[in-house]
């Protein structure tokens, strides 16, 4: 029998990246009992220390919290500064595994898309590297395309800033408007870093992508040749475990009292929040639709402070006067939301979302159509893909950016909510079909099941 193998996973700091990484780790060890996985968790000052409280996680998955690094002046340097800690943690692991032939051998690093500097550490240990790409295959293709334009044709990506031109990108069927490019690609300095990540992807032995063939066949086909390493679509990787939070119980009890598909759910991710003027426009739109709603309303951190949004002690201060009283019978305003539990509930008929990739995969899994309202990162590109490429979403706004001064009008919000809640719409039907395909992809013989098998075979 082949000696057991140990993979070291290095997710980027941030709950979205850690959650997806845990899901792929769980999937891998469930498929092969000779696999062991160690996750090295990086912590920023405002992140909570990661503790594994999930008893369903295999004892063959080990978590190591790396010492905190306080230098947050630049994310790239934050990761760079973790190299010594990663080197020390892996050296300890290798040492403890040398004591017997039944102990696992170090077989490779699986690094997050933002942690490609750790490929250097893998090289020091003489093991191959793989990338875990937590966004879409279309976005991966976009990075590869722009990196080629820069490195082989001397094209400066930052020239697309404030441009109204369209780009022809192989991983998209339709021309991509510059207005929906990820924000980091429109800034000269950060674009350099991002395209350097993409260049390093090509040094690895393979790229695991949190997607599935049936959703992104065009994009996956476009990146599966040439100078790129093998691409393994292994998604959707989702944490579908129910929340045991007390607040979650109160929310779900309220949903239990609502008719099927009658509630629109508004939630903008762990970093999503709005100023008072925008909050009032959302409230006005909800009131005008007369539809039932569940709204996760978060308070922005103080200006200039690097922190997560928080719950309002009393949201009535930012809402139009009397709004909570007038909508008491049809709506519920909450703070933090147990998103998966809510999307899984039969009363949810539509989702107004920031279009984070995890959220998009969750909504598709549960067959809930999305009205797009992207905020940051690659969310504008995700919105474009869902609306224009795949016909799986409606638009409230496709090119909104969190740091802009734009206030989306109540009229636009109302239109988007009415569209996403329309019973029997073509989009609702397509989302339901994609929901079934997403589940089949992970079953024995499904596209992602087979793809993960191919990855395991060559570890």
Topology of this structure?
Elements: E1 5-10, H1 15-31, E2 35-41, E3 61-65, H2 75-80, H3 83-96, E4 105-112, H4 119-124, E5 129-133, H5 137-153, E6 166-167, E7 176-177, H6 188-201, E8 207-209, H7 217-222, E9 231-233, H8 246-256, E10 263-267, H9 276-289, E11 292-296, E12 298-299, E13 310-311, H10 323-326, E14 331-334, H11 339-343, E15 348-353, H12 357-365, E16 370-372, H13 379-389, E17 393-395, H14 410-420, H15 426-442, H16 447-457
Parallel strand pairs: 1-2, 1-4, 2-3, 4-5, 5-8, 8-9, 10-11, 10-15, 11-14, 15-16, 16-17
Antiparallel strand pairs: 6-7, 12-13
Helix pairs in contact: 5-6, 9-14
Q: What is the rounded distance between the termini?
A: 15 Å
Q: What is the fold-level CATH name, i.e. the topology of the largest domain?
A: Rossmann fold
Mean pLDDT: 92
Second-tier CATH architecture of the largest domain: 3-Layer(aba) Sandwich
The DSSP helix count reads 16
Structurally, the number of domains stands at 2
CATH superfamily of the largest domain: Glycogen Phosphorylase B
Major sheet attributes:
7 strands, parallel
Radius of gyration, in Å, reads 22 Å
Structural class: alpha/beta
Quaternary organization = single chain
């Amino acid at each position: 029998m082949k000696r057991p193998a140990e993979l070291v996973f290095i997710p980027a700091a941030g709950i979205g990246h850690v959650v997806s990484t845990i899901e792929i780790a769980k999937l891998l060890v469930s498929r092969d009992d000779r696999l062991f996985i160690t996750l090295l968790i990086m912590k920023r000052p405002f992140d909570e220390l990661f503790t594994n409280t999930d008893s369903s996680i295999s004892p063959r998955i080990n978590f190591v919290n790396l010492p905190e690094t306080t230098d947050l002046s630049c994310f790239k340097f934050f990761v760079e500064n973790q190299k010594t800690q990663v080197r020390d943690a892996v050296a300890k692991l290798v040492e403890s595994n040398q004591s017997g032939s039944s102990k696992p051998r170090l077989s490779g690093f699986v690094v997050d898309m933002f942690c490609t500097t750790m490929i250097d550490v893998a090289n020091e240990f003489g093991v191959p590297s793989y990338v875990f790409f937590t966004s879409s295959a279309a976005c991966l293709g976009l990075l590869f395309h722009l990196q080629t334009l820069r490195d082989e044709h001397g094209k400066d990506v930052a020239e697309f800033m404030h441009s109204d031109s369209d780009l022809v990108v192989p991983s998209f069927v339709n021309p991509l408007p510059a207005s929906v490019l990820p924000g980091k690609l429109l800034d000269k300095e950060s674009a350099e870093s991002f395209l350097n990540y993409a260049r390093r992807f090509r040094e690895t032995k393979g790229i695991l992508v949190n997607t599935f063939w049936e959703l992104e066949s065009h994009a996956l086909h476009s990146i599966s040749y040439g100078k790129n390493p093998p691409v393994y679509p292994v998604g959707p990787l989702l944490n579908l475990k129910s929340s045991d939070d007390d607040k979650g119980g109160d929310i779900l009890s309220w949903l239990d009292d609502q008719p099927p598909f009658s509630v629109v759910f508004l939630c903008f991710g762990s970093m999503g929040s709005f100023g008072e003027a925008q909050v009032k426009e959302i409230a006005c739109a909800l009131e005008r639709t007369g539809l039932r709603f569940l709204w996760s309303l978060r308070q922005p951190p103080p200006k200039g402070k690097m922190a997560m949004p928080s719950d309002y002690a009393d949201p009535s201060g930012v809402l139009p006067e009397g709004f909570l009283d007038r909508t008491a019978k049809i709506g519920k305003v909450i703070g933090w939301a147990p998103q998966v539990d809510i999307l899984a509930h039969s009363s949810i008929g539509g989702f107004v979302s920031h279009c984070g990739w995890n959220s998009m995969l969750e909504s598709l899994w549960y067959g809930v159509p999305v009205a797009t309202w992207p905020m940051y990162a690659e969310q504008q590109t995700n919105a474009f893909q869902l609306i224009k490429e795949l016909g799986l979403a409606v638009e409230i706004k496709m090119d909104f950016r969190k740091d802009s001064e734009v206030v989306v009008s109540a009229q636009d919000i109302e239109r988007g909510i009415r569209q996403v809640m329309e019973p029997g719409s073509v989009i609702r039907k397509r989302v339901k079909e994609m929901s079934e395909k997403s589940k089949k992809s992970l079953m024995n013989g499904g596209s992602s099941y087979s793809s993960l098998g191919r990855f395991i075979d060559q570890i």
